[in-house]
Amino acid sequence: MNAKQAAGYRAAEWVKDGMIVGLGTGSTAFYAIEKIGERVSQGLKIKAIATSNASEELAVKYNIPLITAGDVNRLDLAIDGADEVDPGMALIKGGGGALLREKLVAINSDRFIVIADSGKMVSHLGKFKLPIELVPYCYEWTLGQLKNRYDVAFEMRMRDGELYVTDNGNYIVDGAFGQILSPGQLGDELKAMTGVVEHGLFVDIAHTVVVGYEDGRTEVIEKK
Ligand SMILES: O=C[C@H](O)[C@H](O)[C@H](O)COP(=O)(O)O
Question: What are the binding positions for substrate in this chain (predicted)?
């Protein structure tokens, strides 16, 4: 068992019969989905909503019944990975480009459980480049605004030589902020910029962090 698997499997224990569950995206969330799928095959009765096309495919593979947002008002639980977690449980997410759907699911869940290998735990956010989702229309102007406002390197995310396109049809720019001292303030500023759809700072959203270690141990940290 590796650290991501340990965290994902442990978090899957929170899922109970009758719950509506948000399924995260990425290599750590994969393990949570795998374990939930195993429990579904043993009789667990839940419904789920996926945060990306990739996670939806996984849910279908594991016969986890899926719903859409129109079917429910809130979720009982969401389980998702993170790229960085600070001591106050603020996160950077979006390394896999799913930040917008992930944030929508997380903020509409009664409990949001973050699963992370111990290497993701940091004293300050920002070493991991902050993903920012942009509307494709005139994105060059939005990028220009970002560059004028922040003295850090911004790089449009690419895939196979083309601009990376999210599941929502948007672009991503990654910002090398280095050290983010006030994630809440930075998040508010970014959100206020026309052309920015969403950013990967998740502040005051996580309720629980499950940290996985390479020897298979896990540690559960609850919001104070
Ligand atoms: O967009 C992707 C998500 O925010 C992921 O949860 C995050 O990037 C962590 O991914 P992983 O578990 O693969 O490190």
Answer: 25-28, 80-83, 93-96, 120
Q: CATH number of 130-198: 3.30.70.260, 3.30.565.10, 2.60.120.200, 1.10.940.10?
A: 3.30.70.260
Annotated binding site for substrate: 25-28, 80-83, 93-96, 120
- In three-state form (DSSP H/G/I as H, E/B as E, the rest C), the secondary structure along the chain is CCHHHHHHHHHHCCCCCCCEEEECCCCCHHHHHHHHHHHHHCCCCCEEEECCHHHHHHHHHCCCCECCHHHCCCEEEEEECCCEECCCCCEECCCCCCHHHHHHHHHCEEEEEEEEEHHHECCCECCCCEEEEECCCCHHHHHHHHHHHCCCEEEECEECCEECCCCCCCEEEEEECCCECCHHHHHHHHHCCCCEEEECEECCCCCEEEEECCCCCEEEEECC
What average pLDDT does the structure give for the chain?
A: 97
**Known binding positions:** 25-28, 80-83, 93-96, 120
Domain boundaries, the chain: 3-122+203-222, 130-198
Which residue among 79, 85, 93 has the greatest number of ligand 1 atoms within 8 angstroms of its CB, and so is best to mutate? Answer: 93
